[in-house]
Every structure is written in structure tokens, then in C-alpha cells.
Amino acid sequence: MRRFVLIAIPYAWLLALFLVPFVIVFKISLSDIALAIPPYTPTLRDGFAEFWAGLDFENFVWLTQDDLYWKAYLSSVRIALFSTLLTLLVGYPIAYGMARAPEEWRPTLMMLVILPFWTSFLIRVYAWMGILSNEGLLNQFLLALGVISEPLTILNTNTAVYIGIVYTYLPFMILPIYATLDRMDGSLIEAAEDLGCSRAQAFWLVTIPLSRPGIIAGCFLVFIPVIGEFVIPSLLGGSGTLMIGKVLWEEFFSNRDWPVASAVAVVLLLILVIPIVLFQRNQQKQAEKDT
Amino acid sequence: MGTKVFAPWDDPNAKPLIQFRNVTKRFGEFTAIDDLTLDIFEREFFALLGPSGCGKTTMMRMLAGFEKPTEGQILLAGQDIDPIPPNKRAVNMMFQSYALFPHLTVYENIAFGLRRGNMPKHDLHDRVQEMLRLTRLEKFAGRKPHQISGGQRQRVALARSLAKAPKLLLLDEPLGALDKKLRQDTQFELMDIQEKTGTTFVIVTHDQEEAMTVASRVAVMNDGKLVQVATPDRLYETPNSVYVADFIGDVNIIEGHATATGEETYRIDWGEGREPLTAKSAQPFSAGQACHLAIRPEKVTITAERPTDADNAVQGRVHDIAYLGNLSTYHVELPDGTIIKAQSANTRRIARRSFTWEDTVWLSWTATAGVLLAE
């Protein structure tokens, strides 16, 4: 009985806060737009028979007809892939440095990685606007140094979006990689060198393969949320930055087309299911290996 | 026997494979190795023995190239190895943790070192197969390290470190993780492999029994210095200090003062009202010099009556008996409270044992049974 209660709590949580809202969103995606409150039809107030008859996949068909949507999906995936790669390139050396740092420093370094979470994400993105804008700190600094004579246009470009994403999601990349590197037995590197590897070879043949689970976990933890990212592209990106999160927001709030917005959300979720399943499988495989 | 005894350390013309010349290694304030000079010969199975923190692992890491001597030189086959990085040395190491690559199979672990050279593919395969055969691992070639037992992992580590046919193989507490029975079997296997391959082995261990079993010579270390370097039997029979006598096996130490009574014969006064003891020693002692008489328990005879022909005899009471199956160690308490251990083989059934607790017994030993030590 106690076991049942223990299991029931997370299931009830998932049911109430994930599955029920999803069913509602899915239902809206099958409805039609209407000038009413709520702004779609049919609702259950119309009676069940009429309600059932009013549902159709029209909105999903629409998504395939207007090229805005698949372009936005594609562009989101592309931006997510590229920024995941950038985050990996920045995050791996940091994680490696942390794992190699003297034991007594590591808690402090870990603290520094986690520290940004103490400030609201939104405020930190606004801070980047202040840094990257034409009159921002970065341009003033470079102008003062005489490196540039004209202010660089960074804000409202894809570059700003990448900077924002890499900055925001870096801890999610660093922490899993650090965890695998920290666990690694240092004598493995010595063994590799003893058997004739140079430092670089030992890194490539031993350190990288052994930190692969961390790399994979970190990449998924960045890639999955970045696809649906909305705040960073809308605050730092320009009109040229096309991301599905932004399209979704505009459908909901600018167009007030809840059914199409819901259809966009459902498809986004289906796209995300693929990497989430792959991620879960990676974690499971790792857990099996450890036992 | 026609075969010559293997003892290059007694041959003044033999050229050592490894020479430590006044090597000192300091870590900050701490001196791990203190002005140490040592020769190790080709084909030797050399053991570095000592308690943890005595510097034995540092010696090994200097040979492998992971540490550099602060002062002094280490020569390998006459060449100073100081500037050679670990990956260029003809030295391989078997790590205490085995350090097997968990992401590679047994086969790939063994092939790892060979792949770093430019070995042709089929030669490489032959060599790996040879190593698998040598360590009886053929059946496990395709397994990952976490899929095999501790003893098998130990053999993979050995095969991997032997695959490149190094001039010198270093073994860092190689059998520490194995249970006693497996450890004993593996010791003989190690000796067998060492003989077959003709490689020079240097083993680090804190287990004196292991060092005595496998090694041709043993260096006993303490506080970064060599206390004694000798063959196992010499180390046991003629330790040069109380430290060595005490470290290797079980021993009774009797403190006293020596006085010469004849050629190489000394009388030892070891306390008011006690009958002086007699001991022979090639090492000279001045009159009244403080000395320690070290006697192994198995060289002390235990009897009910005072033996008539013994050089030394003391009376006491059986305080404790340690029954080891094949042997029994009697802890005999002398009237003043000193405990002397005597060991005898249990040739009779335990029910017919001659002595039991609280019995009054005589302990005796000959003049040559013990070793007289100055310190």
C-alpha cells in the first residue's frame, strides 16, 4: 500500500500537469478559430455529438501548406544543432579544466558554474542586450581600445542568439561532462602514455571515449530545450531569426489563432520526442554499464 | 648440478640494467627518496618492499617516467633516462588498479601499445594472440574489462604491459586486489612468465611473503632509504638490522650487552639475575656494547626438561598458544614478564600435544641460531 502511494504521487503529478494539459492542447489543435471566448470552436458546451463532429486535422494540413512552418522547424533544428556544437566546444575545455584542478578548488569552480542560476534567466538575457547593443559595453570597450572604428552590429542578429544560447545553456553542458571526467581514473592516462601515447593521443584515445556519455548527455540537455527556445531569439535575435518558439508565440498572442498555435506545439512535441527517447536510452545504457 | 646459479649481483663484471646513482626525490618539503644508490640486473625479479610511504612507489614512478629525480641519475642500460618521456621508454608498467581501458575489449587493451608503433597488421595480431595464450585469456579476447573477474583483469593488465616486450616491466602491487589463494597461484604464474619471457621485473609490494616468494632479490626500504638489499634467504637468515629482522617474518628480539668470550663468540648480559646468553657473530662488538639478539621462533626449541647440551636455555610458563594448523607458536612468559615465541611443527594430533597453557617449559637455542645486531 505504501509503495502504491509512493508511486502514485509522481504519476498523479505527471497526469495533472503534463498529460491533461497536453490533451487540452491537442483538442484545441483539432478545433477551428472563432471570435469568441475561448477563441476556438467547438467546445463541450455545444453538446458532445456536435463537439465530436467539429474536430478535424485541418490545422495540421495547414502547417504543411504554408512554408513558414516547416522552415521555422528546420531553422530551429539547425540553430539548435549549431549552438549545441558551440556549447560543447566551449564547455568541454571548462569541464576538463575543472576535473584537472586541485581537489580543494573543485567545489568553488562548481559553484561558479552554478552561480548564474541565482539570477533570473530573463534578467541575464536583458543584460546581454546591454552588452551587445550598438552603444553597449562591448562596442564601447572595443571602440575605446581602437580595435574598431564603427560599432559592430551584433544585437538582433543570429550571432547574438548564439551568444545568448551558449551562455545560458553552458552549465547543462559542463556538469555532465565534468561528472564523467571527474570519475575517470587518472592512472588510465598514465597507462596510455606508458604504452606509447603522446599527451594528445592519450586525450583522443582515452579521455574523449570515456567522457562520451557525458558529452552525449550534455548535448541532449542543450539541444532539446534550445529547439523550443523563445526568449533568447525574441530578445537578442532580429527579424531574420526564424525559430519555431517565436512562431508559436506570434500565433498565440499576435494572431490569436489558438488552434494553429496548438497544432504547432503538438508537432514540436512530436519532433522533440525523438531526441528525448534517444537521451533516455543513452542514460539507461550508462546506468546498466555502471552496475 | 651443472647449471650456474643466477647471481649477477655477486659478479663484479656484470653490467647492471638499471642504475640509481645518488637519487634524491623531494615533493616540496617531503623527501620521498633520500640519496639512494642501487643496481638492478638483467633478468632479475627485483622486489621493493616496505611499509606504505617508504618511497617504493616513487622509485617505480621514476623508472616509468611519471616522476623525475630531484637530484642524481637513473641509468637504463647505461643511458640516462631523465630526458626520455614515459611514452618513449622501453619500460612498461602494470598498474595497481590495473588501469584497463574500460571502453576497449581485452584484445584491444592488449593491442593498445602495439598499435602505437608501426607494427604490420598480421604481426600485431600474432603478438596479441601470443600474449592471450601466455596469460590463458584466449576465451575472453572479445570481452570488456567489466565482464571478467578480478584475476582475469590482473592477467589482462600483465599481458598488456608485456605485449611491447619491454626491457623492464614494473609491477605496482600487482596482486593486492586478489584474495589469498588466487594471489599465491598468481605469484607462481608471474615467476613462470618472467622466466619464459626473460624480462627484468621490478615489483613493488608491502607484502613480505609475496616479495620473498617471487623475487630473486629484495630491497627493504624505510623512509626513502634502502635498509638492506639481499636475496630472500639472506634477508631472513642474516638481517642487517632489527628493522629488517622485524619486517621479514616473526622474530624475538632480546636486548643486552655483548662481551667477547672467544673467537666470534660473545656473552650477552641481558638483565640482572639472568643467566647470560651465548651467541656467535662474525660482526665485531666491543666490550659492553649494546646489542640486539634476533632469534626466529622456529629456531627456538621447547622442551619440558632442561636440555643438557644447549648453549642457551631459559625457563618460563606457556602464556598463549597460536595454533596455525601445521605449526603452533608458543608464547612463553619468562619470570620477569618477557615473552619469547617458540614455534614447533604439529607432528602429532592436537589431542596429544605435549604442552598446554600454564605449563612450565624450557626454551633453548644454539649459539648460531640467532643474529647479533648492533641496531
Label this structure with key terms.
heterodimer, A: 291 residues, mainly alpha, MetI-like fold, 2 domains, two-stranded antiparallel ribbon, 13 helices, globular, B: Rossmann fold, OB fold (Dihydrolipoamide Acetyltransferase, E2P), 8 helices, 20 strands
Task: Give a brief outline of the structure.
The complex is a heterodimer of chains A (291) and B (375). Helix content of chain A is 76%, strand content 1%.
Structure write-up:
- The complex is a heterodimer of chains A (291) and B (375).
- Chain A has 291 residues and is mainly α.
- Chain A has 2 domains: 1-65, no CATH class; 66-290, MetI-like (MetI-like fold, Orthogonal Bundle), CATH 1.10.3720.10.
- Chain A is built from 13 helices and 2 strands; from the N terminus they run αββαααααααααααα.
- A two-stranded antiparallel ribbon of chain A has the order 1-2.
- In chain B, 22% of the residues lie in helices and 34% in strands.
- Chain B is built from 8 helices and 20 strands.
- Chain B has helices at residues 56-64, 106-116, 121-134, 150-162, 180-197, 208-214, 232-237, 242-247, and strands spanning 18-27, 30-40, 45-49, 71-76, 79-80, 91-94, 168-172, 200-205, 217-222, 225-230, 252-262, 265-269, 277-280, 289-295, 301-303, 312-323, 327-333, 339-345, 360-365, 371-373.
- Chain B has a 6-stranded mixed β-sheet, with helices on both faces. A 5-stranded antiparallel β-sheet of chain B has the order 13-12-11-14-20. In chain B, strands 15-19-16-17-18 form a 5-stranded antiparallel β-sheet, with no helix packed on it.
- The mean pLDDT of chain B is 89.
